[in-house]
Design brief:
about 260 residues, alpha/beta, 5-stranded mixed beta sheet, 3-stranded antiparallel beta sheet, 7 helices, 8 strands, globular
């Protein structure tokens, strides 16, 4: 997180580029999201800077897409699209835990409903989903305390997303603690709320995140103008076709009236 002056146009872009060079010099996949504008003093902007710090994981896929001139709308990360899943929780200090089958166990921390930090831990075959949650939750709690992201004496609310069977087992295995308060959310219930036509057979939350991305894509993402070039051309072509159709329809109406 960083506070910057409230600027416009070229001055703002130049300032953001300096910040990117300062924080993430080794990757072109970075973004700056506005958290809020301060209400006192100079009314500066509170920003959240983030990046994909290992570009080699995604560059080969991008090279193929660009070579095929495939329209690319953007590059997004799961923490970006997690915020709507916690907006109904009144907690100011909330940890969202989810599992993605081909990635691992993800823990995303929100302070005041604003994304603060996210950890992804690979889950191996020797460790069950429930065991991974119990093990990593304790580590993350200590990690948040060490970074002073969780105020002293503050209870951490933990929202666990999973299949009903796994949630039952978690209720038995998670230790009772005055430091943490648990909220168990069945993926099937979330799917019904979001009107997702999918049958959840395990605790894999990938379908939830894919639906969130399709329904409410964030305004900022990690792709730059080079990556989204063919998508911009597609949008321009679509706009021209729409304008041409509207003009033709107007001419036909005028001709019929004349």
């Amino acid at each position: 997180q960083e506070t910057i002056p409230h600027l416009f146009g070229r001055n703002r872009n130049a300032l953001l580029e300096r910040k990117f060079d300062q924080f993430y010099r080794g990757t072109p996949f970075h973004q700056a999201a506005l958290l809020q504008r301060q209400k006192i003093g100079r009314r500066d902007d509170d920003m959240l800077f983030s990046a994909l710090t290992n570009p080699s994981l995604i560059k080969p896929w991008l090279d193929i897409l660009l070579a095929q001139q495939t329209p690319l709308a953007g590059i997004y990360s799961v923490p970006q699209i997690s915020a709507p899943l916690v907006k109904d929780n009144p907690s100011s200090h909330l940890l969202l835990i989810s599992w993605e089958k081909f990635s691992g166990l993800r823990q995303t921390y929100f302070s005041g409903h604003r994304l603060q930090i996210s950890r992804l831990t690979p889950v191996n075959a020797d460790l069950s989903f429930q065991q991974a949650v119990v093990k990593e939750l304790a580590r993350t709690y200590q990690y948040l305390k060490s970074l002073s992201l969780l105020p002293s004496g503050q209870t951490l609310d933990v929202r666990l997303m999973g299949h009903s069977h796994d949630l039952i087992e978690l209720q038995k295995s998670l230790p009772e603690s005055a430091d943490m308060r648990y909220d168990f959310v069945d993926l099937a219930d979330i799917g019904k709320q979001l009107k997702i036509d999918y049958s959840f057979t395990d605790s894999n939350a990938s379908q939830i995140f894919l639906h969130q991305l399709a329904a409410r894509p964030p305004q900022t993402h990690y792709a730059n103008a080079t990556h989204t070039h063919y998508f911009s051309l597609w949008q321009l072509k679509h706009a021209l076709n729409l304008a041409s159709g509207t003009l033709l329809f107007g001419v036909l109406l005028w001709s019929a009236a004349n």
